[in-house]
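Below is how a single chain appears once it has passed through the pipeline. First comes the sequence as given, then the structure the pipeline wrote out for it. We keep one example in the README because the format questions we get most often are answered faster by looking than by reading.
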Amino acid sequence: MYIKGLARLTATFNGLVLTLPVGYRPDTNIMFSQMVNDSPWTCRMDVRSDGQILVGAESTTSVSPVIIGSWISLVCSFYVG
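Resulting structure:
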């Protein structure tokens, strides 16, 4: 499975970006490190076996909140068994 796109974080963002349909979900949870805008921040993105794609902020030194209005890359690929 290959996912390509961007997600913009709003003030009401709860971490859930989207839910993949059955047949397009990984067998196990997978974690990716994604870029946030043109900044030194990275963002953890989880693709869960229930199809949910969730994001949360982290930096190289400490866990910090993602800035409202930031764009996060969703580009990733994984095997669907």
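The first strand starts at residue 2 and ends at 3.

See the next section for the split statistics.
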